[in-house]
Structures are given as C-alpha cells and as structure tokens.
Specification:
The chain is mainly α. The chain has a domain of 212 residues. The protein is built from 16 helices and no strands. Helix 3 packs across helix 13. It is globular and about 55 Å long. The N terminus is likely disordered.
Amino acid sequence: MPPVPRGGARADLLRMARWRVWEPPVWLLAFAAPWLLPSQALMVNQIAIVALFAVSLDLILGYAGIVSLGHAAFFGFGAYAAALFAKLVMPEPVLGLLLAMVLSALLGALCSFTILRGTDLTRLIVTLGVALILLELANKLDWLTGGADGLQGVVLGPVLGHFAFDLSGRTAASYSLSVLLLLFLVLRRLVHSPLGATLQAIRDNRLRAMAIGIPVRSRLVVIYTVAAGAAGAAGALLAQTTGFASLDVLAFDRSANVLLMLAIGGIGWLYGGIVGAIVFELLQNSLSSITPQYWMFWIGLILVLLVRVGRERLLRPWTWWKRSGA
C-alpha cells in the first residue's frame, strides 16, 4: 500500500475554505445593492445583520450540535454594549463593535459551562433562561438601559472617521455587509480547520469523540464563545445603524426567528444562515405588507412545506452551494 501523503486532511480542509468561482460576483452584487437600489438600502442592512446572527447560531447548532432557544442573549448584550459605549464613552463605531464582540464572547464563555452537561432539552431550558434573565435585567435597570422605553439618544460618529451614516442607509448597509463578509471568512476558515473537524465529530457522536481523545469540553467552550462574539457583533451593528437599543433585542421571538432562518436555509453550512435570512426577511417584508395580521401564518405554512416536501426539492437551485463545500 502506498504511503498516505502527510498533510492530506489539512490540505482538504484548506481547499474547502477557499473561494468558489461564484462567490466574488455574489458578494459584489450584495455590496452594490444599496447603491443600485437606494430605496432598499435599509432592507439590505437588516438582512446583513440578521444573516450574521444566523451564521453565529449555525456555529453551535450546525457544527457542534448545541440546540439553543436563547441565542438572543448575546445579540442583545452586544446591542446594549455598543449603544452604551457610544452614548457614555465615545461614538466611534468600530471600537464599539469590537468592545461588544469581546464582552459578548466573555458572556458566552461564562454561559458555555451551563451547556456542557445534560440533554438537548436541558440546554434549551438553560439557554432560554439566560436570555430571560438578561431581558429582565435590562427592563429593571432602566437608569442604565432605558427600560421599556429603550436606550435612546445614541449618536454614532463616522465609520473609521470618514464614512458618516446617512438617512438613506447606504453607509449602514455597506458597514454591516463589510462586517458580515469579514466575520464570515474568519468563521468559514474556523469550521474548515482541525477544530471544525473535531466539532463535527462531537456533533455526530460525543462519546466516540471522547473515546478517541478529542477534548470535548474545551472544544464546546471555544465554539460557544466564538458564536457568542459573532452574535454580539450582529447586535452591535443593529444598535449602531439604528441608533437605538430596546428590550426587543433580547426577546424570545428573536431567538425563534433565527432558528426559522436556519430551518429555511439549512444547518451545517454557513451560507445556510445567509440564505435563510434573505428568504425570511423578504417574506416577512412582503407578507406583512399584504396581510399585516397573518403574515406569520404564511411563514408557518412555508415551514410545513419545507418539512413535508423537503428543502432539497423546494430550494433546488441553491442546494449545489452546500454540496460545493461552502
């Protein structure tokens, strides 16, 4: 038998993390959208933010098998951190974004120890409980967070000192898309690394992963911390581009909506979060304008069709993205 070339697995992982031919045009089109369609710049900004939030959840759900109903805890924590930094310290958006990411990651590292034991049901309850605790704290600490009225008066300076936020939302959309792209590339490199490979082994069979010597606890802590930091970045982008942070950023429906996005786009591939965010936001925007009271009914019907018919059949034009290793 010929010898197995050294570094073969690592080379495969590096190849999976490379850009595909279709990716640069897609991202260029996304960055051009706020300028080609200025009336939709705010929608593009919203999609970029929730897409980053969905990608952060896919890190723990799709790659580590950790089910969460309280991922909004990190999203909301990042939103309040960025808003308070801009209001009380300095209006520099990039520094506020970095601070929100670091603080959210620290919160994720602290909370990660609560999901290391127990069943999926236990993790659902624990993650939901963390989000509800933060929601109640934000409500009670009204002298700091504004309580039910929200944190108002958040004024941001120009991005990097040159790009001021405008009313049309084009700067905000470009800013959010830039952060999404940068973090997407970092996270894709992470999941297509030896760490990512061990995470998928843990997801498939935790006991077997422990038996072959994979440090399961430390791997789960790392990915949960990274996912929390990415979710905090999404929350910070929302607070910075809207100039407002309210209890809504910590609400249960935000965690539920991001799960719906992954159900639509698919888990276990990072583009699933982006595709799901695009479909969900466009559906919500169009259906709520047609039937403001019943738009959730139609979203639910679409989810039922996804389950009954199958995502592969309904979303066949996009399935080759997943097969390409993105």
